[in-house]
Amino acid sequence: AYDSAARREALAEAGIADGIMHRGHARRPLAPWQRWMNRALAPIRAQVERSFGTLKRSYGWRRVRYRGLARNGAHLHLLCTAMNLRRAERLSPDSRAAPGDAPSAHRTARSTPLSEIATLPRCNHSQ
Description:
- The chain is mainly alpha-helical.
- The protein has five helices and no strands.
- 0% of the residues are buried.
């Protein structure tokens, strides 16, 4: 997120290093060290925002689906688990095997590959 006095005070009280990007205004432009800090934080923020973009685009997490923090928290954990399983399959050595290679033993033991599970139609709970 971007900075505000309240956020910076809360971070200082919690003992957390200042990792919020600075925002300039018309009458208060950014100082050179603030521009430098924003450039240093941008790659870190991009990695986090990419995950949120994937959750929104691929998993339909644009709005919460349930009432209450517990149910929506559980739903978010399930979506993150699904996203991590999909990433794990992509990073596994078996997924990088050349076409025509014999599949490994643990790959054939699964009844449904993870790539097929990820493409199953999603439930529409709003009906």
